[in-house]
Amino acid sequence: MSGLLVTVAPTGAETAKEDCPQLPTTLEELVATAVECEEAGARMIHVHIRDDDHAPTLDLGRLTDTVDALHEKTELIVQLSTGGSVHDPLDKRLKVLDAGPDSCSLTMGTTNFGDDVFSNPWPFIAELYQLTQERGVVPEFELFDLGHVAALQRLLGKYGLPAGGKVHVDFVMGVPGGMPGTSAALVAGVAALPDEVTSWSATGIGRSTLPVMLTSLAMGGHLRVGMEDVLTLAKGVPVDANRQLVERAVEAAAVAQREPMSTDEAWALLGLKR
Ligand code: KMH
Ligand code: ZN
After folding, report:
1. Residue ranges near ligand 2 (ion) with Cβ within 5 Å
2. What is the pLDDT of residue 2?
3. CA 12–ligand 2 middle distance (angstroms)
4. Nearest ligand atom owner, CA of 224
5. What distance in angstroms lies between residue 263's CA and the mean position of ligand 1's atoms?
6. Is the distance from the beta carbon of residue 82 to the nearest atom of ligand 1 less than 6 Å?
7. What backbone phi and psi angles, to 5 degrees, belong to 261?
8. Which atom of ligand 1 approaches the CA of 106 most closely?
9. Quick one: how many helices (H) and strands (E) in the chain?
10. Torsional class of 114: left (φ above 0), alpha (ψ -120 to 50), beta (otherwise)
11. pLDDT tens track, the chain, 274 positions
């Protein structure tokens, strides 16, 4: 069996608490979710946080408290989002690293994002990447489009390997404006990955969740699941808790003769020391 890294992305920046009261938006809810998801087999958490009004925020004090609380209550790899929401300015997104995460997301290019634009100009990517290298934070390269794979090659060629020496990427598929969440697109993306890539995962937004999950499992890839990416288990069946999505991923993996990796294996996969 080849071990499976399950990352949970429990909150995101796009869903309103009033539309989805079960979305973990407070620190207490986030920590409780993290504990449950770790028990279910997740080994990394991709974190977006909210303010007292449940609106997305990059407040540094809150981010630091969140990292500390997750480290205290779990052994999950804590990955802070540097993508934030489409409304967050680039300078605030760079400051996220000051909160001391183990890992951070690093999106490899600007992409249309529904009716909005998720801005990731090259100078921002380069600055954020060099900051991760200086701080010893391991980036997860987020690929929303095939062009982002080429941008990753350019980045690694110019600035070398990440802190820890491993290159982990995540295909985020099915965003309106990005690559479709199809088996064909994932196969094409994986085939184009630079040789330096040591591990990859995939997630499909909305109804592309299942095709992307099953294709990734079949190809030996890892998985990201969570309410950032999907809010239903099936048509008309809402997700009540992130744990359900982790459990479903672990069950599907078992059918594919894959099992969640241990905590030590997950940290080593990303070149991180606990
Ligand atoms: N919320 C999206 C605009 C990331 O976390 O780095 C960006 C996003 C990617 O979710
Ligand atoms: Zn995110």
Report:
1. 81
2. 79
3. 5
4. 2
5. 25
6. yes
7. -75, 160
8. 6
9. 9, 16
10. left
11. 579 999 999 999 999 999 999 999 999 999 999 999 999 999 999 999 999 999 999 999 999 999 999 999 999 999 999 999 999 999 999 999 999 999 999 999 999 999 999 999 999 999 999 999 999 999 999 999 999 999 999 999 999 999 999 999 999 999 999 999 999 999 999 999 999 999 999 999 999 999 999 999 999 999 999 999 999 999 999 999 999 999 999 999 999 999 999 999 999 999 999 8
Q: Whose CA is nearest to atom 8 of ligand 1?
A: 83
Supply the residue whose CA is at minimum distance from atom 1 of ligand 1: 85
Residues 81-98 as b/e (b if ≥16 CB within 10 A, e otherwise) read: bbbbbeebeeeebeebbe
Atom 6 of ligand 1: nearest residue by CA position: 83
For ligand 1, say whether the CB of 229 is within 6 Å of any of its atoms.
no
pLDDT score at 1: 55
The number of angstroms, rounded, from the C-alpha of 102 to the middle of its chain's C-alpha atoms is 13
Residues 49 and 57 sit within 8 Å (Cβ to Cβ): yes
The atom number, within ligand 1, closest to the CA of 48 reads 5
Amino acid of residue 233: L
Point out the ligand 1 atom lying closest to the alpha carbon of residue 116: 3
